[in-house]
Every structure is written in structure tokens, then in C-alpha cells.
Amino acid sequence: MNAPIIDPLQGDFPEVIEEYLEHGVMKCIAFNRRGTLLAAGCSDGSCVIWDFETRGIAKELRDKDCSAAITSVCWSKYGHRILVSAADKSLTLWDVVSGEQITRIVLQQTPLQARLHPGSSLPSVCLACPLSSAPMIVDLSTGSTTALPVTVPDMGNGVAPHSRNKFPDGTPFTLTAACFNKNGDLVYVGNSKGEILIIDHKNVKVLAMIPISGGAVIKNIVFSRNGQYLLANSNDRIIRIYENLLPLKDGLGALGDLSKTIEEEDTVEKIKAVGSKCLVLFREFQDLITKMHWKAPCFSGDGEWVIAASASKGEHKIYIWDRAGHLVKILEGPKEAVFDLAWHPVHPIIVSVSLTGLVYIWAKDYTENWSAFAPDFKELEENEEYVEREDEFDLMPETEKVKETDTNEDDEVDIVTVEKDPFSDSDMSQEELCFLPAIPCPDVPEQQDKCVGSSSKLVDSNHSGSPFSEENGQNGQATNNASSPLEEDTGGTRLKRKRKPSKKGLELQAEKVKKPLKPSKTSDNVEGQKVQ
Description:
By secondary structure, the chain is mainly beta.
């Protein structure tokens, strides 16, 4: 956004529904790192990639072996890969540019969420959160899985026990939430005991624990884009924001050094002491009146705002808080439940998925302020007589002659150096995929002739080898001798024309065969005929 144009007295957050996207029944969404592409998982097993600048479909990824609903979509760091999890227990990694499937893995449980490793440009490791089992690290190249611990093990070395499907007292655990940190060297897991565990996923070891007051089940756990804040959505209807005290890079090494400074004999108490120096409670968000549950909470692109949707059925309400804890806006949409929510990485735009499968785009309702573009511009409520200055239309006004320019016209202008993107949360990469090339779709499926006939046949038919050649209705073979754009009914199969060739196209064909074009009477009168 252009900062000087924005009114500083208005909040930089969406206010109204600008438009909506429609393609099948969409269930989940995810922006790429720049917000130029939007991936949406559909109920039929396909993944649609929207060009968010033009609001058109750039590519559709469809797996012939998957017809189940998509549960989550995730972009790689530079946008060249997309990981899709589906209700048929599958994880599919796609190449975005070519649209080809790289690998497909079937798990034992349905993955409700899957996230690619954020520290690699072409990641081969992902974090999956199955329906009724512990979060796991999945190696996409080999298909091997490693389950992560969901409780603090009561062991001296801190290594997770072998049986991870039950608590120490023998009761089975419920759904858990997990996410990578910004660098991807640590995994933060929220369990059903109301604890946030910080885990070294390579060594499968719990390094720290942060208990939540009340011990409610943690349903969602999300990091901000810059990695400085952690959001935890609990079953006690409170959204908690924690400040991350670990460095953004090499958090694993800093956590190891921190553990060495704490002298505690008891393993659990030591892990809690380490956790108290990793995350600090910053804010709590809740609705004290309705006490509603929250769904799909997340941060804004700059981390200044927190949004969450109401989990109540039959209402499309999105709550927006500032980081200080104040409720600043409630967006009310159609009477449809919210499935998923995402904030644009760069602009003040919110995208929400409704129960009916539509994607609503919420944007700011800007008021026209022309004086922001030109400070000397004055808006008139009624017409006034204007008296022009004496030098107003001179090639070089006197006022310009008086001004002295500070710019040296002999200096060379640097048009090669790329400035750092102010909205970027990490290093710039020339390999980053921001847009997809537009591929036009043909209106009518046609078959091109493998070999072009003689020039005399081409002149007589006016259609052989052109995009307007039609297929035979009975055997599907291409006709080489169409007498006119509209076929006559000769007792056989009637062929229907979808589009009439233009005169310019016929002239280009005639020039191609280096012979003059002689249009027939049938083609001259085709404009007056009615297409059957």
C-alpha cells in the first residue's frame, strides 16, 4: 500500500466484501508468500490456483486417484511446490509450474492439516496432523513417518516413549495442533492437556513446555509471519498470543544453550523452566458476552492484527483485534458458516471460505481523497470563476525558472539493482514464483490434421488444418473437405459449427498457400443463415 495516501485515522483492515470467487465447492485456502497466487482445495479432490491480481484461474491440479475432499493446502517457501492433504488419508506434492504430481503418500489416518518445511526452497519434509493420532514428520521422498510426542515424557533423558497413542495413565488423547517455527528447526505442539511443547523433530525430543491456564484443549496453533508471536486457540474460548523470546535463526541452538543454564534435577520441572524463557503470554482475546468458540484464527501479514471467525453455525462473522487486545471490527457476511480464513500477506485483504464453497474477498472501503495525491488540489462544492495566471500556459513558467534543481542530470540512473522488498519477511530470491503464465483454453476441442493436403484442397475447403475444423459425429475423425462453415444436412450426421471464421482469417490462409482466395456463394451467404 502507498502509506502517504492512507488516512492515519482509519484502521488498515478490511471492511466490506469486494467480490467472491466461485469454482466448485472450495474448502480451504492458502496464499503464497507474496499474495499473488491463492490456492484453494475443493471437495472433489482438486486444487485450484487463482491469480489474485486478475481473479482468474491460473491452474487446476487434479489427481485422478483422489476424489475425496481436500483438508489443507500449503505452499513451499518460494512457491514452486504445493502440498495437498485429502480426506482419503493422502498427501500429494505438486509442481506448480508444470502441474505434475511429484509424489503421493497414503497415511494411516486422515491428515487434517499438513505443512511443508519453511526453511527449504524445495522441501522434502512436512508436518502432518492426523485426525486421531499424534502429529508426525513425513519424509516425502521416502514415505517414512516419525510420530512426535504429545506429552512430556517422565524419563531422565527426555526422549519420547515408544507408545505415543496413549497418555501415561492409559487414556487416549484427542486431536492435537502443531506447526513449524519460522526457520523450521523446531515444532510447536499443542495437546489436549493445555500444554505447548517445543520439540526437536530431528531427534524426537521435548525441549520445553509451556502450560496454559485452565488446561483446555488446544485446537489451533499458528505463528505470525515474522515469527515473533505465537497464537494458540483453546477450547476454553480464549485466543492467547505469546511472544517468542527465542532468536528467529538457530532457535534450536539457543534452546540448547538455555537448557544448560538451568539446574533442575526433575526433568518435568526443568522443561517447564526452559519453556518459561521461550514463550511469554502477551495478550488474551475472547468474547465475554457470547462466550463463542473461535475458528481458523490467524495474524495479519504484518502481525499488527489478529482475526478469527465465529464457530457458530449459520453466521459468517469475522472478528478483528489489534495487537493491544482491543476489538476494532466485526465483519458480518452472509448467513453461512466459515470454513477457513486467511489474511493477505501484503495488503489489508481477508479471504474467507463459506459453507457453500464460495470464497469471499473482504477489502477496505476507501474514500476518495484527491488532495492526498496533489496537496494543492481543492475540491469545490459549486462552480467558481477561474482566472488563469499570465504564465500558466508558457512552455517554461516564471515560477519554474526561479526554482533551482538539485539533481545532476549527468548522473547515470541505476536500473539494474533490485531494492529489497519492504513487505518481505525474509531474503529476496530470484527463483521465487510469483505468477503463472496464462494458458488459453480452447472453446471447442478439435483435432489438428497430421498432414496438410494439397494447396488446391485447402483453397476449396477454406477450413482444412484450421482451428475451425469439426469432428465427425459418428467416428470422431476429422473432416478434411468441409464445404462451408455451416454443414448442410445430407441425410447423415449433421455437424454443428461453434464459431464462424473471420474474413481476415480466410485471407491469411490464402496468403499462406500463395493463391488468391475465391469465396464461394455459400460462404458469402453464411452470415444470413441461422446456426442449427
